[in-house]
Design goal:
Layout: H1 2-58, H2 65-79, H3 84-106, H4 109-112, H5 115-150, H6 154-161
Helix pairs in contact: 1-2, 1-3, 1-5, 1-6, 2-3
């Protein structure tokens, strides 16, 4: 009879431990997902601002239609991104197209003097800072989640419950620089 109680106690203890480990995986996965959503929210703010910037520049350089179309295409790619890797690639594409747009802006001194454009510049800088902070929070959450997945004995449970490691938001080479905007 004592052996039955010991077996029952071990079974209950194992069940409680399994539930706690599973719930911790879920909590960490939700934190990773939430932090990725925060990055997307900041990127969407940028995607809302950039078309206004494009429209402002169009008034002065309507002949640059290819540059405008490339910016809009990059915005659409980023808006549909659903993983750190695809968002990272879209961000790289957007920064390259914005660099061309800013070259157009610099070629038009009357455009550079626009207070509306200066306001958009400040908004864009603030959004870029918020994106950088959101990426940091995401990567921290992904690191903690991934560490739990690969640590023993949690890795056994992760395999059983099919928890997969989260990708990190790594900026590709050359895209770690902020978009430089100068209206002077």
């Amino acid at each position: 009879m004592i052996a039955l109680y010991i077996i029952l106690f071990i079974y209950v203890l194992q069940s409680v431990w399994t539930i706690l480990v599973y719930n911790d995986f879920v909590k960490r996965k939700l934190l990773v997902d939430n932090n990725f959503s925060q990055i997307k929210i900041q990127c969407l703010k940028r995607y809302d601002l950039v078309p206004n910037l494009v429209e402002t520049v169009k008034g002065f350089a309507a002949h640059e239609t290819a540059a405008f179309e490339n910016v809009i295409a990059a915005l659409n790619t980023g808006a549909s991104a659903n993983s750190p890797e695809t968002l990272e690639n879209a961000d790289k594409e957007l920064k390259a197209t914005l660099a061309k747009l800013f070259a157009i802006i610099e070629a038009h001194p009357e455009l550079m003097a626009s207070s509306n454009l200066a306001n958009m510049q400040n908004q864009l800088v603030n959004i870029e800072n918020a994106i950088a902070i959101s990426r940091q929070f995401y990567n921290d959450a992904a690191m903690m989640y991934n560490r739990k997945i690969v640590s023993f004995p949690n890795n056994l449970f992760a395999r059983v419950f099919r928890f997969k490691q989260a990708g990190f938001f790594d900026a590709p080479d050359g895209s770690t620089q902020s978009v430089r905007i100068s209206f002077n």
